[in-house]
Specification:
450 residues; 3 domains; Enolase-like, domain 1; 22 strands; FAD/NAD(P)-binding domain
Length: 450
């Protein structure tokens, strides 16, 4: 007879782990199935290792710009060891034991849905009253001729490296490619970044791309936007990439960072009357339901491929499982690129807002010249810009972006304003700490011509 559980969680990434911890707090009997490592992509190959690797390069930049300091010295062997500590060097046995000691049944292997309330893993069948799918995503590998033969890294190999390459070519100008480019360059690599779109991180406001470009170029990174990699070949110890304008770039390592694909195929969706979308996404409704008794959360849904999104959707799914449905709201999900300076944004860009038909008014504030004293106390030759997008008719914020130190922290003032549709009258009557970067919101909003 098959083992039976209150809830079976398929995938132990951020969404799956968040759900397991919440379900345990509700005294539920939980099955956790994971084919690779507990913690998923975020803990082992993405968010945690990348932010660990980026912190020293951020500190080096900050220490070189602050008055009365010299640039911090980078120590790669020490960082290499600490990154392995943060990721447990690919050994999740302690995390498995931790869950088992709390009463979770952990099964390692490829799990598949096998009909309503049923999962199959390694030839064994498990039954559950409820199932949460959180199978995550995987790196997209573009069909570039010669790529497989020449050899390449995805984010997994790049964040687990033990030696800094002398040079690297990065294909992809989104957050992953941008972060890896700055990390490698500041540790001494000669870096070329190839981006098919005509600008970096094109999901954001064009001004954000301009500031990112200036920042990376100041670090000495070679940027090639508006061109595509067509062919790769080995030449000695280098990968030589031929571009569609007939030029070439070369590097000891070639890193592919063109995006990610939801893992919704080949997990048995058809056995519960569902079907993955065009890009592999698991279809969900506003309560993260797939079908009766089945929910999904995280990258596999294709909604927004962020760890914080996975945790949010896990909360939505758990509320629905408990009979207290909450409608998911994706209007104010923050987006951050952890470069130096940081890039943070939320909500709609000005172009998106206009396309959606809003009566838009927008403004940009240069932090140093706009009166943000914190910019000067934080560093010499201060930097930073803030953009806000407002619905003139309803007098609420639709979106915001910042390229500045610590932007990942103070973007959350805009996140709350967008999420709660806080009236401008409240935002402009709110007192910000002096000196802080958060003062920029008041100064920017005061510029608006409403």
């Amino acid at each position: 007879m098959a083992d039976r559980f209150d809830v079976a969680v398929l995938g132990a990434g951020p969404g799956g782990e968040h759900a397991v911890n919440g379900l345990l707090a509700r005294s539920m009997n939980v099955l956790l199935v994971e084919r690779e490592l507990i913690g998923g992509e975020c803990s082992n190959w993405a968010c945690i290792p990348t932010k660990t690797l980026l912190r020293p390069t951020e500190l080096r930049g900050a220490s070189g710009r602050a008055a009365g300091t010299r640039a911090a010295e980078l120590d790669w062997p020490a960082l290499d060891r600490y990154r392995d500590y943060m990721t447990s060097a690919g050994d999740d046995s302690a995390r498995v034991r931790g869950y088992e000691e709390r009463g979770v049944t952990v099964v390692k292997g490829d799990g598949r849905l096998a009909g309503p309330g049923r999962l199959e893993v390694g030839g064994e069948t498990y039954e559950a009253d409820r199932i949460l799918i959180s199978t995550g995503s995987e790196a997209v590998v573009p069909p570039i001729e010669g790529l497989a033969e020449a050899g390449y890294w995805t984010n997994r190999e790049a964040t687990a490296l033990h030696e800094i390459p002398a040079s690297a070519v990065i294909v992809g100008g989104g957050p992953v490619g941008i972060e890896l480019a700055q990390f490698l360059r500041r540790f001494g690599s000669e870096v070329s970044l190839v981006q098919g779109a005509d600008r970096l991180d094109p999901r954001e406001d064009a001004r954000v791309s301009e500031l990112l470009t200036a920042s990376l170029q100041a670090d000495g990174i070679t940027l090639r936007c508006g061109v595509h990699a067509q062919f790769v070949e080995l030449d000695g110890g280098d990968r030589v990439v031929r571009l569609n304008d007939t030029s070439t770039v070369r590097g000891e390592r070639l890193i592919v960072a063109v995006g990610r694909r939801p893992r919704g195929h080949d997990i048995g969706l058809e056995t519960i009357g569902a079907q993955a979308g065009e890009h592999g996404e698991v279809p969900i409704d506003d309560h993260c339901r797939v079908t009766e008794g089945v929910w999904a959360a995280g990258d596999c849904t294709g909604t927004m491929l962020f760890t914080h999104m996975a945790k949010y959707q896990a909360r939505i799914a758990m509320a629905d499982m408990a009979g207290h449905p909450v409608t998911a709201n994706y209007a104010a999900i923050p987006r951050v690129v952890f470069t130096d300076p940081e890039v943070a944004s939320v909500g709609l860009t000005e172009a998106q807002a206009r396309e959606a038909g809003y009566d838009v008014v927008a403004t940009t504030l240069d932090l140093p010249t706009g009166g943000v004293a914190r910019a000067y106390t934080y560093e010499q030759d201060p930097r930073g810009e803030l953009g806000v997008v407002v619905d003139r008719r309803r007098r609420v914020m639709l979106g915001a972006w910042a390229v500045a130190p610590l932007a990942s922290e103070w973007i959350h003032q805009a996140v709350l304003a967008v999420r709660a549709q806080v009236p401008l009258e409240v935002l402009t009557d709110t007192v910000a700490q002096f000196p802080s970067y958060s003062e920029a919101y008041l100064l920017a909003l005061q510029q608006l011509e409403l």
